[in-house]
Structures are given as C-alpha cells and as structure tokens.
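Query structure, 379 tokens:
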C-alpha cells in the first residue's frame, strides 16, 4: 500500500523550517562561545547574533539597533505592553481581534482600563470611535495587529497611527502573522513597537523580536546580565536567533512569490462558495495565504479531523483556541456568532504548492458531501 504524503496547510500555527534557517541553526550549534565573552569564540557568537539582528531589521525596514531579541511573539507583545505601562500610559485600547498574547497581557496590565476597538463584518478594525477613545489627558497605548491570525485580514495600521499620534498616544503592532507574507515598512506604518516571531516565517520556535522606534521606551523585563542592551537579561539563544535571521532574509527574498498563494487560495475559496460555504473577510485586503471558511453544520473540529484523516493538516481558528475546542472569538467579533463554531483556517506558505490547495479542497468537499448526506438521512 502506498501512503499519500501529508499536506501541511497550517503555516499560521507554525511554518515548516526553511532550509536556510535549519542550516544557520546547525552552524551556530557547531560553534561554541557566549556572545558576552571577549575571546575569539565569544566574538564569533556575537557576530552571529548581530548578523541576525541586521537581517530581522531588514525584514521590516529598520536598523539593527531597533531590534531586541526575545523568546517569541508572546514575549515581544508583553514587552511592548509592559514597557508602555512602565513609561506612564494610563489606558489601553485593544482591537477586538488581537491574539490572546495581546488581549490577555493588556487585561493583566496593572489593572489599567482597557477599551475594545470593534471590527466590522469583514474583520477590519473600525477606527471611527478611536479619536473618542483617545480623548482626555491620559496617555493611551493602542494595540492593533497588522494581520489577523485567523482570517488574514490586514488592519488599517497607518490610519490608526495618524489618529494615535494626533492624540500623543503610543501604537503597538503585532506583526507576527504579517511578517514574511506581505512587505512591512515600520516607519510607514507609524508604529512605536512591533512584535515578530521566528516560527511563523520559517525560523525556529522559541525566538522572536520586539522592534522599537524612537518614541518607545523599552524597559528591562528580566533582571540579570546586560544582554540586549539591558532590556532582556540572559544569555542569548544564539542558534535560534541565527535561524531567525536566516529565515527573515529568505522570507524577504521570497516575498514576490508569496502572492502566488493568493491565486491558489482564491480557487479553493470559490469551490467552498460553490458548495454553499462562506469565506470570512473576503471583502477585505488579506494575507495571500490565509483562508478562513465556514459551512453551517460542519463543526470546526469535525472538519479538522476529516481533513487530518485525508492527510491534510489545517486548524480550527487559532492554534491556541483549537486545543480548547472553543468557538472563534475573531469570527464572533465580526458579528458572525452563527458561524463561529464552524470556522476553519487554511494557511499555506513558503513550501506550499498549488497541488496542496487543490488536494485540500478535494478533501474538504468530500467531507462536506458526506456530512450533507448524513444530515439528509437524519432529516
Ligand atoms: N501574535 C499572533 C498574531 C500570533 O498568531 C501568535 C501565535 O500564534 C502570537 C502572537 C504568539 O507568538 P509565539 O507563538 O511566537 O509566542
């Protein structure tokens, strides 16, 4: 019996490691040395870290000095929010579709009031209430992600920045999902801080970065040594950082091809619509490789299991919430609570092919047909 190769379309959970990143990690493992040591091995390790810092900076158009390495997207978001709180913000505004890493950190931030910025039916942040939310004396931190992890919908960050700056607030942007999928220019976005994660762009898990502009004051989060210019103590994850840098360089190089996924994604979307399914956020600008679909009566977990049996790996909503089998908070925020239990996320990336998207569609349609036949039998 020949087994079919598995198809991985869950890049928004974790992208497969890029060969360049794998090589960089292995190379770093082969060389000893602590980047803080002054001898030759230490200097070589320092070079590895600083090369990666430059590569990660280039991915978002900043100089290396703006990049602080941390343990991942979650820590980058926490460092941004906690730094803003430590430097005197008195209120937080968080979009309704932020990842838990932002929403939960904001909720835990020294008991400060947190206002929720709503999204429209396409999943785009509605900025009309933002000036009112920022009115008054108290300095405010606004958190608006660049692209949503479940729908791929791109957010009006530059527009938000203009409003935030006019009110002398701060803007934090979670760019964990957008990085490597669309071009990012930190200055053009008008962000004060921006979070990145290596494993979403084909680097290793457990490493990320916070990019900070001149208006942001990044505070010390972990006490100990003076690593990362005193912002984050602890010997650097040299191999992980090296892999992150290599992945960032490869992702930047491959950006022109990333758009191809959009054609394949849209072809699958059409098949879903033809079969009576719904594509969430289809009227908005989206990451080219993310598809969030729903078909009433076809529970998210049942879809995931059926596709898994067919050798296709996708996820129900965000990876964190799929483990807990709960309805998608993002879909609910879009006013489609009726569809929230049925949402499925298909996300490709650097190694995905047109055939992957076609096979995924075949498997989804076959499962949807079976479910339909069963429902008709019961009725
Ligand atoms: N922000 C977004 C939008 C994400 O999708 C994720 C991961 O799913 C994170 C933050 C957390 O990143 P990490 O897994 O590197 O902590």
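Result returned for the query:
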């Amino acid at each position: 019996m020949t087994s079919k190769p598995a198809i991985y379309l869950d890049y928004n959970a974790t992208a497969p490691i890029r060969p360049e990143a794998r090589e960089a990690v292995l190379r770093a493992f082969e060389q000893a040395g602590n980047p803080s040591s002054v001898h030759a091995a230490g200097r070589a390790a320092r070079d590895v870290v600083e090369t990666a810092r430059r590569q990660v900076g280039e991915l978002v158009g900043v100089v290396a000095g703006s990049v602080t390495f941390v343990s991942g997207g979650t820590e980058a978001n926490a460092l941004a929010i906690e730094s803003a709180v430590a430097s005197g913000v008195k209120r937080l505004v968080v979009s309704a579709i932020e990842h838990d890493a932002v929403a939960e950190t904001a909720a835990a931030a020294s008991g400060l009031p947190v206002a929720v910025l709503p999204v429209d039916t396409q999943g785009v942040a509605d900025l009309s209430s933002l000036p009112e939310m920022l009115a008054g004396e108290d300095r405010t931190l606004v958190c608006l992600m660049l692209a949503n992890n479940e729908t791929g919908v791109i957010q009006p960050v530059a527009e938000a920045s203009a409003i935030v700056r006019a009110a002398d607030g701060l803007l934090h942007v979670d760019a964990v999902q957008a990085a490597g999928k669309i071009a990012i220019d930190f200055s053009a976005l008008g962000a004060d801080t921006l979070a990145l994660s290596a494993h979403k762009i084909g680097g290793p898990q457990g490493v990320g970065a916070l990019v900070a502009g001149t208006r942001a004051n990044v505070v010390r989060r972990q006490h100990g040594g003076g690593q990362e210019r005193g912002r984050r103590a602890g010997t650097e994850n040299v191999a992980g950082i090296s892999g992150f840098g290599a992945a960032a360089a490869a992702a930047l190089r491959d950006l022109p091809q990333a758009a191809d996924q959009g054609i394949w994604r849209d072809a699958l979307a059409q098949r879903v619509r033809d079969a009576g399914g719904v594509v969430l956020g289809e009227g908005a600008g989206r990451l080219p490789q993310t598809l969030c679909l729903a078909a009433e009566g076809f529970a998210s977990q049942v879809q995931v299991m059926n596709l898994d049996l067919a050798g296709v790996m996708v996820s129900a909503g965000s990876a964190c919430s799929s483990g807990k089998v709960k309805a998608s908070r993002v879909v609910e925020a879009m006013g489609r609570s009726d569809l929230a239990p049925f949402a499925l996320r298909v996300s490709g990336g650097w190694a995905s092919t047109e055939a992957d998207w076609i096979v995924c569609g075949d498997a989804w349609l076959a499962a949807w047909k079976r479910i339909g036949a069963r429902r008709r039998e019961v009725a």
